[in-house]
Amino acid sequence: MLPDLFIRLRRPIVLVLHLLLIPLGYYAAFALRFDFQPPQPYVDLFWRTVPYLAALRLASFAVFGLFRGWWRHVGMRDLVDLVCATTLSTGLLVLVLFMTGDLAATGLPRSVLVLDWITALVIFGGIRFAVRAFREERLVPWRQPRGRRTLIIGAGTAAERLLRETQREGQAELCPVAMVDDDPGKKGMRLHGIPVVGTVRQLADLVVKGSIEQLVIAIPSATRRQMRAIVDACLETGVDFKIVPSLRELLDGRARLGELRSVQIEDLLGRDAIELEMEGPGDDLVGRTVMVTGGAGSIGNELARQVAGFGPKRLIVLDQAESPLYFANLELRQLHPELDVIPIVADITDHARMESVFARHRPDFVFHAAAYKHVPLMEDHPVEAVRNNVLGTLCVAQAASRYGCRRFVLISTDKAVYPSSVMGATKRLAEQIVLGWPALMERGTDFRAVRFGNVLGSDGSVIPVFKKQLAAGQPITVTHPEVTRYFMTIPEAVQLVLQASALPEACGRISMLEMGEPVRIVELAENLIRLSGLEPYTDVPIIFTGLRPGEKLHEELMSDAEATVPTAISKVRIVQTAEPEPELLTSGLDRLMTAAAVGSPADVLDAIRSLVPECVSPLRERGVVAAEGD
């Protein structure tokens, strides 16, 4: 009741306060001009002109919105508006007095106008900043700061933004007392009253001397190498440490300004994070019907979330997994209540079902993320891998082409290059289908593919497995001490898919992200253990189990027979690859379909080898696979 009443009365109260302070500041200008003893003629002059000034200044303040601002959050923008409004009202006063003929008659001293301009800024600016200072408890000398004594690593823009947030009312979780920065020119400087006391190399000593209880990393521009060095320094102190979210996390809504999070394994990748401009696909997707197959999986779900932000007319999320699809639908409806989200439970290998879905909804765009991706499982179930990854892709692609889909984007993998696994070979066949199947080429659908490496945090990736092992107190298992993989984060993978869907030169091609150097899996395990506050090999053993069937020691992003060309986006390249003859592809797939229908794993593997001759370390070296399910 009382807060609502205050909100309704706030603007009238502010207006009355300004009405009282305007004459006060104006009279102060006369008093300063005449050593606080203005002669009676000038006192009369004050009373004759103050109504003009009051009316003009109130009007100017209203024009610049000074009555609508929150004084507790006043900033430089408000100060600029105050200067502009005060200058305008002073100029209008001179103009009005000149037009009415009163300027010459009154003999108003120019010094009074200047002094009034100054006193107005001091009074109205001072009262606003005084309110803000009172609300921000660390700016009030008699208030005892609350929160954990915190040292901030970095003294740049992110640190300044964090300090502003911590000084606001109620932000008492941490109490910044010092900062460090490797820029020697910043040592001894202060930022919002907090001194820069040293560098990261001095962190351990500074933590002890300053009785620091928490560290905050505020260097979003740090390279991964620098970040690893900072994290190592933080771990040596034995003090809890957090990190400021990146700008991408703030823009994506995954974090809030001033919110801290724990350092994640993604922060320690062997390369800098890739940030792609996200304007490209917006014009294509707005007002369209978009389908995401595999939309309940980790990649498909993130893809659906990102697509929803571009304002499509309708978003179809298709998946075979009922429960994950249910929760994905709930999340999308909560985030975008205005969007028509249609969840569909369906099997992509069911030709009749795909025909029905496409005939009813006629999507303009299809992002095909549905696939079996676990290498060891698919080694034991090659028939199912072929049914889902190959025949399922063909089924969806045919329906998309038949019902006038404008664009079809296949999500592929680096395991399709020189495949040594059933999963990799089936994804290479999926690439061949969408880029070379004769019947698909006869229609107007734009088919393209996107190839990327392992995705950190996706379902079944190594990091969730490592975390479960740590939580259970088990040793971390790594296949081989030298095994390497190319890694991406889920947002990076989705950005690539969306950008590749918009690139004109990607039509009928494979797009690939420049992913830097591959990462050793054992280093990921070691870093994850350290981030958990433990020591690798001492507190948590790392056991090497040997490469599993179908796995390679090192993955590749393209074969020797392929080349890449740059695109309009610096980090995205187009893979130029030789596709098989249409007749050979058609006859080979007919043979593969027959083998899959019969359920013969050995015949399926033979058909795959004939279609993908670049397979290495032949698929299922034993040559004959036991019947599935044995």
Written overview of the protein:
The chain has 630 residues and is an alpha/beta fold. The chain folds into three domains: 2-135, no CATH class; 148-263, 3-Layer(aba) Sandwich (Rossmann fold), CATH 3.40.50.720; 285-453 and 488-513 and 563-611, 3-Layer(aba) Sandwich (Rossmann fold). 47% of the residues lie in helices and 15% in strands. A hairpin with a 2-residue loop joins strand 3 (190-191) and strand 4. The longest helix is centred in the N-terminal third of the chain and has 32 residues, at 2-33. The radius of gyration is 33 Å and the shape is elongated. The model is unreliable at 1-7 and 622-630 (pLDDT under 50).
Terminal-residue CA separation: 71 Å
CATH fold topology of the largest domain = Rossmann fold
Indicate the mean pLDDT: 82
State the CATH class of the largest domain: Alpha Beta
Shape: elongated
> Which stretches are low in confidence, meaning pLDDT under 50 for 5 or more residues running?
1-7, 622-630
For the CA atoms, what is the radius of gyration? 33 Å
Please provide a brief summary of the model.
By secondary structure, the protein is an alpha/beta fold.
Question: What are its keywords?
Answer:
single chain; 630 residues; alpha/beta; Rossmann fold; 21 strands; disordered C terminus
